[in-house]
Task: structure prediction
Amino acid sequence: MGTDPGRVREALAEAHRREWAAVLAATVRVTRDLDLAEECAQDAFVTALQAWERDGIPRSPGAWLTTAARRKALDAIRRASTLRSKLPLLVVPEASDDPGDGLGEGLGGDPAGEIADDRLRLVFTCCHPALAREAQAALTLRLVCGLTTAEIARAFLVSEATMAARVTRAKRKIAAARIPYRVPGAHELPERLDAVLTVVHLVLTTGHTAPSGDALVRDDLVARAIDLGRVLLGLMPDEAEVRGLLALMLLTDARRATRVDPQGDLVLLEDQDRSRWDREAIAEGRALVTAALRGGRPGRFTLQAAIAATHADARTWAETDWVQIVALYDLLLLTWPSPVVALNRAAALAMRDGAEVGLVALGALDASALAGYHYLPAARADLLRRLGRREEAASAYREALALVDNTTERTFLQRRLAEVTT
Result:
């Protein structure tokens, strides 16, 4: 008697969220070919659908999927080897095909043991300096974290078609340039650090507020990002920005339990029960950001962590030090002139100097750089609501609703819209 197909699909979806990175990384260690590894990992999930319906859901889905993917990879390698042996050798292999060229130090092994975590090893590999920065991050989110192209596109504020093309070009460049998949040596780690930090932070932000779906938070992505941050800190304990990133993630996630109410509705920062914030995570995050700030001129992750720590230090919303937060955003804009940072600074200005000042700051932003980013019209709507400009607020709320896919956020915006139209 088989297993209910619905239960199998749920188990597979859960396994994909939690185990995809481990399955793919383990398979890459066999293939040393990213495309082949991804294909075999995907095939393993397809195979599992029928096998689990027939035989039942295994006690360890991740182990089952990893074994299946690695077997498929070995079969593919054997087939390719057999094919090569039956064809005349028309092309002399290049040096990079020689197993003695250093590839043994890559995804097939890590004799120095410099990166103990397979997932982080794969993150560093995808962040090869020959790839454009956007391609490094997008490829890692797609391959290591299993995010869909649509989810990655939302994280980068670009269209799905643009992101799909970006990922495809990155894969083609890897193949055409014969980029070796290997663990970077200790002397190479610093040049890839910022790209890796960016990727890990994007995993955190995508999990912190899921781009789509019913749940506000994707716990698996948040946990994965924090785990990677801890492994990265163990690898590079003297890097201030590594401390800053881990601090930022811990301080951000410390509020998780209070971000929705018992009915699953969104609760804004100003209304959250601060007594339920994770004080242990806050203490660890505060210690990390303090240490990072001692490491010289602070980078973008350290400054963001300092902002999060300032929020965590306030016993109530009314006691928030907005002067300090705006000053930190000013520094952050100099370090990292991002349109999202400018938007967040405008919101902080509104809290320090009033909603009218915030609206002026929002109006000065380059709206084209934030096209499709629902937080821009949502922020404008909130300030208009606070000023009693109900019709304009309603229009801005409708604009935000047209852009948001997360059910929890949609429900909140619909409730706000109702407030200004009734």
Summary: Strands lie at 212-213, 405-406. The two ends are 56 Å apart (CA to CA).
